[in-house]
Amino acid sequence: MKKQFSPIGGKVVITALRMAIGWHFLYEGIAKIALDSWSSQSYLANTTGVFSSFYHALASSSFIGLVDWLNITGLVLIGLALFVGCFVRLSAVMGAFLLLLYYFAYPPFGISLLSLSGESHLYIVNFVLTEAVCLIFLVFYPATGYGLERWHKQWKEQKASTGNAALPNRSSRREALKNLISFPVLGLMGWGAWDNSRRYGVDVMSGATIQLNRMDLSELKGALPYGQIGPHQLSRLVLGGNLIGGWSHARDLIYVSSLFKAYNNERKVYETLMLAENAGINTINIGFSSNELLQKYKKATGSKIKVITQISASVEDESTLFDDLYKAIDFGVDIIQIQGNWVDWMVRDQHVERIGRLLVKIKEEGFTAGLAAHTIDSLIACEQSGIIPDYYMKTMHHDRYWSAHPKENRVPFEIDGPESSDHNKYHNNCFCPFPERTTEFVLNTKVPVMGFKVLAAGAIEPEDGFRWAFDHGADFICVGMFDFQIVHDVNICIDILRKIQTGASRPRPWYG
């Protein structure tokens, strides 16, 4: 005998569906309120599709403040009504209408597939459309589930039949509890959202907040090639973390670090990472202090970007040797690299064995292990001691640029020492002081090499720096990029790698 679906089960399913969508709306609205400077202007200004002129007109109008207010108010009221089960059909109609406005702003077909990373931009049927269809279903479904509407209806029926609504029977009390269940659930979810915001800050990735410049992405020349390090497939062009972390090698320009930090606020960092992923860059190499930001970004967006994190330890206190390693594992990173300055310091101070112990521990924990350096003497010393990583990361740039100090004045480990006021000596201006020795080492090593500082911190043009690094043996290059540089740099990398594949300029086999 075929088992029929229980009416109570149907109410539970409808209630759960309604509350889930309601929470989505409510959270989006409250997140925008929490962002004092939030505006839909950039979202509207970059729309595409048949109705783009309508959205552009809204973005350029003097009523953008009203548009933002209507958007936020609609999200909050619709979300709250759906969650607690009040004015359900009206809220479902208005919610579906709002979602369709979002849908047609960035229709998920054609070029708009490049508009965001993540699964929300599936072809034609995306999450926005799916949620709108669910709301339309709620409009026509005979029941609205448990909620205030049903509680009020039962209260009126009881009052009409007994003449006294203040004395409900046991069955009525159970029904009342079912209909009011959304309130404690809302309290718990609200507390969880508040606690998450308290720990991680306001969610800058709520809907209708960030969109990418589609015109830039439309100019991509093709797919960025990938290589392999251990089990990881990495883009040949890796995003560097200095600009995101606020570190700059600005020589005597003292304002640049502050400028980096002011420009690359959290929202801009998210935009940059999203743009990089859509342009084909699937890996970022970060300083240890940026781990929390990357963890938050991946959690908020569902990003699959591979994170290489740099770890180090106290120079004086050997007991801290594994501290960063365990913290990095907790952050959920993909690849762990021993930081270049620390490696230089350990070799300079004759503590090479510490590097070896840390590298072995990284591998024992099941991670791909990288070893970085600025001075080539550090990698040579490690290799001579039998310390071989899964890949090397080495500063790789030529010295044919104006601010490079004379070769005869360069000494090993000067990058980790004081900066001289003498223009003929080191002053945060040269990061691969011995390019010929670096090239010799790279050409002879049998593990992948990732070149970094290939532009000498902005002193060399990308076409020149990328080509020099790849021609001299780099399997990957790590480059710090602002958002407006990403597509241009990806295209340069694509062009150079195509030429290298068909030419004979690269003497070293690809090891990645």
Which keywords apply here?
single chain; 512 residues; alpha/beta; TIM Barrel; 2 domains; eight-stranded parallel β-barrel; two-stranded antiparallel ribbon; 21 helices; elongated
Describe the structure.
This protein has 21 helices and ten strands. The protein has 512 residues and is of the alpha/beta class. Mean pLDDT is 87; it is low at 111-120. It is elongated. The chain has helices at residues 7-34, 41-45, 52-60, 64-84, 88-105, 127-140, 148-162, 170-179, 182-200, 214-218, 242-245, 256-263, 266-278, 291-301, 323-331, 340-348, 352-364, 376-384, 435-444, 462-471, 486-502; strands at 226-229, 232-235, 237-240, 283-286, 306-311, 335-338, 368-373, 391-395, 449-452, 476-479. Helix 1 (7-34) crosses helix 6 (127-140) and helix 5 runs antiparallel to helix 6 (127-140). It folds into two domains: 7-146 and 181-200, no CATH class; 222-502, NADP-dependent oxidoreductase domain (TIM Barrel, Alpha-Beta Barrel), CATH 3.20.20. Strand 5 (306-311), helix 15 (323-331) and strand 6 (335-338) form a beta-alpha-beta unit.
